[in-house]
Structure formats: structure tokens, C-alpha cells
Specification:
The chain is 8% helix and 38% strand. By secondary structure, it is mostly beta strands.
């Protein structure tokens, strides 16, 4: 079975940056399982997987536009330190979860100047080239429930 829309795919992957540093990997853990065509993974990787079959292994580089997007300066905001109640030390690089108009989002502290904290709402991988080393482990038909919900259930997928 080839990878196409509305099939469940399980992959093993390692993600690196331009310098070859490992950002994420499924090695030693569960493979990543997703419903192809449902927007569960970044567009560039999904496109690269299209038509592949079990056993295919490949490397692909994804530009920011097909990954997590370019950095958007409008996503930088200065907020008062008091918004971080219960956090004694705030330093650049720290990450927090924040409730936004778009749901729960990871924000990164980019600077601290006195009582003002600059936070960055861009995805931590925005603006970066992403290099994947991928192996296709499984391709199968989805259950009716997986199709209805738009994601995979069970091992490597979503648990309700």
C-alpha cells in the first residue's frame, strides 16, 4: 500500500538542524503514527512521504515555508514581569505554555529588561531548515473512528 490521503502511516525519524544537531528523534521510542492528508505533520514532510511504501528510507530537507513558517516579528511582545506569577527567575530561552486566541501555545522568553519580558510566540522551529532522516515502518487503512477524528488512535497516535 502506498502512502496517500486517508491512510495511517508510521515512521521512524531523526530531525536535525543545519549544523547536524539532533532536534528530535523517534529512535529508541515509539514511531510517529499519523493520518496522511489530515495536516497532522508539517506540509513538507507530508509531501515527501506521498507515494512511499513500507521499507522506504530517505532523507529530506524542508525549508521554513513548508515547515513551521518564517519567523514573524509580530509574534514578539513585551509583557510585564508580573504576568509570570510564581516564577522567581525569568531568563532568555525559557519556554512557557500560554493560553492565546489560537489555543494553548508555547512562548519563548527572548529577553528580560528590568520589569519587561519580551516573549516570542513563533514556533520554536520557525525560520529553520529542517532535515529529516525517515524510514516508513507501516502503512494501513484507518479505522472509521480515526477518519472521523482526523488522527491516529493507539500506539504512536492519540489516546482519548
Amino acid at each position: 500500500m502506498q502512502i496517500a490521503n486517508d491512510v495511517v502511516v508510521s515512521i521512524e525519524y531523526t530531525l536535525t538542524d543545519d549544523q547536524g544537531n539532533v532536534i528530535d528523534s523517534s529512535a529508541g521510542g515509539e514511531p510517529l503514527a499519523y493520518l496522511h492528508g489530515a495536516g497532522n505533520i508539517i506540509p513538507g514532510l507530508e509531501a515527501a512521504l506521498e507515494g512511499k511504501v513500507v521499507g522506504d528510507a530517505f532523507k529530506v530537507s524542508i525549508a521554513p515555508a513548508d515547515g513551521y513558517g518564517e519567523k514573524n516579528d509580530d509574534m514578539l511582545q513585551q509583557v510585564p514581569r508580573e504576568m509570570f506569577q510564581g516564577v522567581d527567575v525569568i531568563e532568555a530561552g525559557m519556554q512557557f505554555h500560554a493560553q492565546t486566541d489560537h489555543g494553548m501555545q508555547v512562548i519563548t522568553v527572548s529577553a528580560v529588561e528590568g520589569d519587561l519580558v519580551t516573549v516570542d510566540g513563533n514556533h520554536p522551529l520557525a525560520g529553520q531548515n529542517l532535515h529529516f532522516d525517515v524510514k516508513v515502518l507501516e502503512v494501513r487503512a484507518p479505522s472509521e473512528e480515526e477518519l472521523e477524528h482526523g488522527h491516529v488512535h493507539g500506539a504512536g497516535g492519540h489516546h482519548h
